[in-house]
Protein: Putative transmembrane transport
Amino acid sequence: EPKTMDFNDALAGAGDFGVYQKLLILLLVVPSGALCALVYFTQYFIILIPDNYSCKLQVPPDDLLAASNMTLEALRQLALPPDPNRGGDPSRCHMYDVNLTDLLVTGVGEANASWAMVPCKDGWDYEFGNLYSTIATELNMVCDQDELSYYVQAFFYAGTSIGSVAFGFIADRYGRKPSIILSYALAWLSGIVSSFMTNLFAFMILRFLVGMCIIPLSEDPYVLSLEYIGPRWRTVPIVLWSASYIVFSMVCPWLAYGIRNWTYLSIVTSMPLVMVVVLIKFVPESASWLLTRGRHDDAVMYLRRVAHFNKKEIPENIELKIAQNKRKGANKKVTFLDLFRTPRIRKHSILMLCAWFITYCCYHTNVYNTSFLGTNVYLSYTLG
Structure:
């Protein structure tokens, strides 16, 4: 005669916070927080633009500069019109339409405000200071092209929104493990390939794919772990994940500072993702998810594995069940549309959606604008 047990009771018998659960936290939860932080904050450090840049000049020969007693700074004053929006400093986006060599040959040493002005002809020179060349400076996302960096970010966040829905469906329909494997593999591949992109559209598409994976990178591993942990212990993995995320969000700026190359930074923060793809092979699918999909024997098999690790035993002949809601309609198949079917649930669903939307907007806006605080972007991100 099979012994019927509620899943949570069977999990308690197998050990709901033993060696097995601690290994899950160590191998999945903590790394997922760290890797999510690295991938997420890398997005900002590969599109930084220094404050000081100006039109690239066709510098006359050195002997002519020496004969004219003209320094490079004086040459900039001669070639670049003052910008009233920058307190009269040389313009970053325009130059006088003159030939500098001809001016020096004819002895002209001061700019004439009547000269025609044109946009920068030959690109820009950047004063990086403590920054470095990024995809934004390589593609000159400045002046009349400065909106391109916002488009890159918009694509990334659009991917985040779409990915949270798409991978949520995958995790519920096909299992936690397929969602984890696909999201980590896609983020790894897209992150690596985007590191070598010089075409803006291709780069934006690849960063969109990375953005799609941000939510499953962070949430799927600890959801899988939570489903093997007893209710009283479930705050532990959440706290450890949060601590890991916070620590590595402070590490990422200094990693960027040490590497000082956007391509290498993207590679370095993407490569560790493959570690989770390898480790997940040794982690079983969620037993509670298997039970909801009618795969009872697989769920029992994995619970026995948990019991073996934790040096516990569960009955040989066991039949698992999930606690049922006794209310009318509890066995009805639930869909996404049920969140909006009745006035009360619809109101709560809309309020929750609005609350989360505002929360995410505030968080991501604060993160993005941190780069504009103070003069040291690395310290600003660390403290922010």
Q: What stands out?
A: The beta strands are 3-6, 52-55, 94-96, 117-119, 124-127, 318-321.
